[in-house]
Amino acid sequence: MDDSVVVSPDWLASRLDDPTVRIVDVRDAWEFDGIGHLPGAVNVPFDSYRDESDVDRGTLPGAEAVAELLGNAGISPEDTIVAYDDTHGVFAARFVLTALEYGHDDVRLLDGDYSAWNREYETTSESPEVEPTDYEPDPLAPEESPLVNYDAVVDALERDAVFVDTRERDEFEEARLPGAVLFDWREVVDDETRRLKPKAELEALLADHGITPDREIVLYCNTARRISHTYVVLKALGYENVRFYEGSLTEWLANDGEIETGPISATEDA
């Protein structure tokens, strides 16, 4: 796995004293304070980097909000950010994508979560002293961003793109984009270790679903949270042509987009 995208607990543990490595805990404040957190971590709860005016879709919060969040967390644009949660990284992955979209060059996901870290390394209840910064975001230009909108998705349906639905089976069978492949985001996680499965196993698993590096891939779920995790994993595996449908199925249905419904056939499920 590419450690410029996903880092191991060992990688992070060896850099806890590095002032340029900033650890972000995206759990709720009560978890951060009451349960404990990684040494030196700052708390940026998941709800704080969602657009409050668009709760249903959970879209990005805007450059001004991100500048305030990262500035108040004492983060500078040149810092290396490592994000984690306690839900296999799905909420932290959303933070990773958010920071990348607003121009932070070096932001990574911790392989595993708080519980995985806690099995091997110490945690703390002490909050670090934070000196706020004047953070200036630099949002990606549309041609640089992996995010695609409704119209771009309509166009991609006419091409040989692989549409990957990262939700659960019952959601997929209730409504999905035409021709979509079901790939529950949790399939990449080892339930016992709470970390990602080995690289070779991940590559074989994805290939079994037709999700290969040579294809154009468009990810969607309901509110762009679960696809964040799959996006980060694919980038860590070296996939380059990966698109991220920010509006996901919520927007698609609101625009009366074409859908398929019903059970997966035995052939598709093989």
Automatic annotation (TrEMBL):
Which chain positions lie within coiled-coil regions?
A: none
Q: State the CDD domains in the record.
A: TST_Repeat_1, TST_Repeat_2
Task: Cite the Gene3D superfamilies for this sequence.
Answer: Rhodanese-like domain (3.40.250.10)
Domain of life, per UniProt, equals Archaea
Repeat among the record's keywords?
yes
An MF annotation (GO) of this entry: transferase activity
Protein name (Swiss-Prot/TrEMBL): Sulfurtransferase
Provide this UniProt record's keywords sorted from A to Z: Repeat, Transferase
One short Pfam name that applies is Rhodanese
Glycosyltransferase among the record's keywords? Answer: no
For this protein, the parts annotated as crossing the membrane are none
The family database entries (InterPro entries) matched by this protein are listed as: Rhodanese-like_dom, Rhodanese-like_dom_sf, Thiosulfate_sulfurtransferase
Where is the Rhodanese domain positioned along the sequence?
17-126, 157-261
